[in-house]
């Protein structure tokens, strides 16, 4: 049963990843690709797309770091409230 739950969680995470990937791809494409008169991607479109993706990755990393910091602060506050911090060992 535990294997099924783990497999189910993996499938859920993969679906979330694909949804996020599709959203980022669509947003960057809509923002950056403007010329459909040629089969080639123009250099400014490439630059824009790369910049768009970099911004997204940096934003995601920053949000993740802030979430971790917030979570740590909340755990410390709960521990302090429960009297678990600051006690001599």
UniProtKB/TrEMBL annotation:
It is a peripheral membrane protein. GO terms for molecular function: metal ion binding. Residues 9-69 form the Tim10-like domain. Its main location: mitochondrion. GO terms for cellular component: mitochondrial inner membrane; mitochondrial intermembrane space chaperone complex. InterPro entries: Mito_inner_translocase_sub, Tim10-like, Tim10-like_dom_sf. It is found in: Mitochondrion inner membrane. Coiled coil: none annotated. One of its GO terms (biological process) is protein insertion into mitochondrial inner membrane. Keywords: Chaperone, Disulfide bond, Membrane, Metal-binding, Mitochondrion, Mitochondrion inner membrane, Protein transport, Translocation, Transport, Zinc. The twin CX3C motif contains 4 conserved Cys residues that form 2 disulfide bonds in the mitochondrial intermembrane space. Heterohexamer. This is Mitochondrial import inner membrane translocase subunit. It comes from Salarias fasciatus. The gene is timm9.
